[in-house]
Write the structure tokens for this entry.
Amino acid sequence: MQQVAKNHEHGHAHDHEHGHEEHEQLKVLGFWIFLVTDCILFGTLFATYAVMNHSFAGGPTGAELFALPGVIASTFILLTSSFTSGLAILAMNKGKVKELIGWLIVTALLGLSFIYLEVTEFIHLVHEGATIATSGFWSAFYTLVGTHGLHVSIGLFWMLAIIIQLRRRGLTPVTRRKVTTLSLYWHFLDVVWIFLFTVVYLMGVM
Amino acid sequence: MWESFLEFCSWFFVTGDPLIYGAMVSIALTMVAIVFVLTKYKKWGWLWREWLTTVDHKKIGIMYLIASLLMLFRGGVDAILMRVQLAFPNLEFLHSDHYNAIFTTHGTIMILFMAMPMMFGLFNMVVPLQLGARDVAFPFLNAVSFWLFMFGAMLFNLSFVIGGSPDAGWLSYPPLSQNEFSPGPGQNFWIWGIQISGIGSLATGINFIVTILKMRAPGMKLMKMPMFSWSVFSSCIMIILAFPILTVTIALLYLDRFAGAHFFTMDGGGNPMMYLNLIWMWGHPEVYIVVVPAFGIFSEVVATFAKKKLFGYKSMVAAVMGIAILSFFTWAHHFFTMGTSASVIAFFAITTMLIAIPTGVKVFNWLFTMYRGKISFKQPMMWTIAFIPCFVVGGATGVMLSVAPADYQYHNSYFLIAHFHQVLIGGVVFGYLAGIYYWWPKLFGFKLDEKLGAWGFWLWNIGFYVCFMPQYALGFMGMTRRYYTYGWDYGWESLNLVSTVGAFLMGAGFVFQVWQILYSIKHGERDTTGDPWNGRTLEWSIPSPAPFYNFAVVPQVKETDDFWRVKEEKANGTYKEEPVHLEPIHMPKNSGLPFIMSVFWFIAGFGFVWEWVWMAAIGMIGVFLTMWARSFQYDTDYYVPVDEVRRTEASLGRVY
């Protein structure tokens, strides 16, 4: 609002630049609010999982089938990717496009290996006889973990799109904003995973 | 080959009911007529350029309005059919299956495809103008929201002739809505129609929160913002917190049906009551989502037509925001009978009663605004005045329902039906109608005819009481909802007949309103001043209909009713004319992507409905590609040169 007021005092040439930058900030705020809605989405899935926590219906339990080493590995991979996406932002703030793209690529590769591990875990579980249709517990498990995995996968495509745009256009107010929202999204998924790891896996095997 | 084609058709299309054959023919004829008219008058390009690709909030608002009026018609026909079936005992007008489908679609359409889009229409038509903004924060996203709603609604309505309507109640409680009891695509239509439009609603919530927080004209502090915008803010906060729950809940229901999951099933560790909890965690805020903006409309209308400042502005703000919070703590009152502990029931009973407090504050504020005001009884004010007693009674019966021990008697009876129709018609519908009459001249440049409007008004109002007052009594007499027929020996026949007469009166009221709109397009009083009601807020300071960039000059705001201040200062000569300096205006470009993306959503939804994975995959890939394409679009805005602004303003009679 204050910026709108400022706009009026400035001349035309300034005005155009300002209009853009201000709008990019609106988008970051909008993205924060989107993250609020995503929080509620995951909150609902967590609540569902909590209700279904012991609904094994005579089938396998989580403690019987979860293989922690793989999950711990993927946890560290995702945490590291959050760190590297932070490094990408630092590179962006220094104005180094190449470094920024490099860290984004590292982040994407880590994300990709996380997804690979998750898919192999799911395949393993299905072979052990735990499918989405086995019991309420496994329905809730696959939905919660799968929704997170779907978010990460979408994030990978998004990252790819932004890497291409950065190569073509370099750093502009628009690409800067895009990298900012992407990294917000990526950190958010990391936080969700920490909860997920604790509630589903650690508490699951206890 | 031919045989198998016929066989496919026999389960793909709904067959065997003359009413539905009639509907199919009329749908086909209407579509042919539309295509014919568009082709004959060479209007396809116009349709695409001016409407399908628009990102102008005013045009999007108009499209929402048209769609919601069509849905009001469809939901209203459903209501009339139900009332005809119940007019006399043992009637065989509708079969029980058909009746189930009709009460389901009536409820779903009225809440999700009538009330919601009418509300979004009003958001779009009014909020940016009230805030002194050129558009919403994210015009492209706004178009996405609209088209998602539109295609979701079309998908839902398609079930009527293709595949079969959902028939497990407007909220599709499991286990009835599970595969065992509701095989076929009907329930899937319900799920995906709502899911697709729900994503749009969520995006609108985000959009208007950012618009309200960041796009207000300079000087308009939050506590100087018009009341309607406050109510939109409250409603949007509820939207962003409640709609994700709906998204998850119906996605889980779909997983139960499609993938054999066990969330809400009776076996495999599922828990149907969890569905009830989840759906009402969205569902209760949802009714406040639709009614709070109506409160905002009444606040604007009362102040304008009583020619007084709104009484108790701050308490009004506190009340709308308080309702937004409280609304999330009352959901279990929809199923006090579920058999939970007394303390849980007591908690939800008390929170429900608490809601009456902020609502009561508002009623007194409106009354005190009118007190000693010079009231002019124009159409918006008529609906507002009719609303107050209606809503007070509806609220009081709501408090009766919140008394948990007594609720065991009222639960799912016609008493409940009468209660929520009274708050939803008396509150939401009356409110939105008041809003439509009030802001119509701003959008279209002419007023709606008073005389025909009066017919509509009185028919609606009398019809409402004739229809629903007997239903309170029927509830006490033991009639529960969703009965498709009853015997002569129940003693319900006379009250039911009266109720049906009332429904027809309301239907007649709607017909008068449609007539009123058509009549007024030609004969309605033109609004040449831009301020037909002697309004108080910024939207009345610009010409009607508003130019596409809304404000040639962004206003500087000093007070709550800033336009009123300017008018008063001009009247007593203290107004300081500030030098006007036109600048190029930054505007978003039109885009076809929202429409195309929503078409792909529709294709995906149709695939999900029929559980045709290939089709769902094509649709989702299309959605993904359109999003990808959008990400690569950088040329999304332009500047309107000063000359064009000056010319446009001059053509509207304003010289700069």
User: Anything to note?
Assistant: The mean pLDDT of chain A is 90. The longest helix of chain A spans residues 12-51.
